[in-house]
């Protein structure tokens, strides 16, 4: 449009009309006379906006994923440095070499399950306090530890954090009678709940009363909502006894835990849950059956005894 007197008057007129419509719309509220026009514009331009949003969202998701990945990588890098410092602190004598093996085994497990863990030492046990099965570890709130975090070691599930101080935390062991964790059977995926029984095997109630279970079957943690207090896939134990099925709603199993609760030393607190359920990948390799030697007995026939008549002649 050319810059003429008429074009300038038209521009001023359009601006005046726009201000007038804005004023009428504001004063009209929900009964605004221009509401119909607004809805018509939404009908026309809405699909276009959705299309643009759909095109932009994957880009935003990708940027978010890269950012989250970077944050997770930074967090894991910090944990690796802290665990390396723990290794250095353990020293190199015979006892320390044993503890280093425990730490290495635990770190291997965390790598398989993609758990971000904070290594810790057990500094006290609390079995004498109220008959509870607890331990105290040397990490706390200052180390990023929070209540209801999963605790494991190189063998499997140890327990969950119940109390957190600045530099220490209390862990309720899976053997405690007040402890309960959701479990999943390897391969069959049968779900249940495991409860502690002190120094006896864990008691597991399967939700399926007709589930096919046998001695030697293995269980892992099922996981909790938002991964608190339990992350999924942590080895729990091996079935040692199965109660006969009585046609009830549940079925009772007894499970020997992987972790030895009476001799805990190096443990790890899961401060970073895995991005996806590791399923059965963290379970240890199944033991190979020991071949039984076969003993073959060969019977050698003895010399025939002489006839009675010959014996009498010789006499």
UniProtKB/TrEMBL annotation:
Positions of the Rod shape-determining protein MreC beta-barrel core domain: 130-270
GO CC annotations, alphabetized: plasma membrane
Chain intervals for the UniProt region annotation (Disordered): 274-315
GO biological process: regulation of cell shape
Record key words, sorted: Cell shape
Its biological purpose: Involved in formation and maintenance of cell shape.
Family per record: Belongs to the MreC family.
Entries under NCBIfam families matching the protein: PRK13922.11-5
Official protein name in the record: Cell shape-determining protein MreC
Native source organism of the sequence: Streptomyces swartbergensis
Highest classification ranks of the organism: Bacteria, Bacillati, Actinomycetota, Actinomycetes, Kitasatosporales
């Amino acid at each position: 449009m050319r810059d003429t007197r008429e074009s300038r008057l038209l521009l001023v007129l359009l601006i005046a009309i726009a201000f007038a419509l804005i004023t009428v719309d504001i004063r009209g509220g929900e009964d605004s006379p221009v509401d119909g026009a607004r809805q018509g514009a939404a009908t026309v331009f809405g699909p276009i906006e959705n299309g643009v949003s759909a095109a932009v969202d994957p880009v935003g998701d990708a940027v978010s994923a890269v950012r989250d990945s970077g944050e997770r990588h930074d967090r894991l890098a910090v944990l690796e440095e802290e665990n390396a410092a723990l290794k250095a602190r353990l020293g190199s004598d015979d006892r320390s070499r044993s503890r280093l093996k425990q730490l290495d085994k635990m770190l291997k497990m965390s790598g398989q399950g993609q758990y971000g863990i904070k290594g810790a030492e057990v500094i006290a046990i609390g079995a004498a306090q109220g008959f509870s099965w607890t331990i105290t570890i040397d990490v706390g709130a200052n180390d990023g530890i929070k209540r209801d975090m999963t605790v494991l070691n190189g063998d499997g599930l140890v327990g969950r954090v119940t109390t957190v101080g600045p530099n220490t935390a209390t862990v309720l062991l899976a053997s405690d009678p007040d402890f309960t964790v959701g479990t999943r059977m390897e391969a069959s995926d049968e779900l249940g709940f495991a409860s502690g029984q002190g120094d006896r095997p864990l008691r597991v109630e399967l939700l399926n009363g007709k589930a096919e279970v046998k001695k030697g079957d293995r269980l892992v943690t099922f996981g909790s909502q938002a991964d608190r207090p339990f992350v999924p896939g942590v080895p729990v134990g091996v079935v040692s006894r199965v109660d006969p099925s009585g046609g009830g709603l549940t079925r009772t199993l007894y499970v020997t835990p992987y972790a030895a609760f009476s001799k805990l030393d190096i443990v790890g607190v899961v401060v970073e849950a895995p991005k996806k359920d590791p399923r059965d990948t963290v379970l240890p390799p199944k033991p190979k059956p020991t071949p039984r030697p076969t003993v073959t007995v060969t019977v050698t026939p003895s010399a025939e005894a002489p006839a009675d008549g010959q014996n009498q002649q010789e006499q």
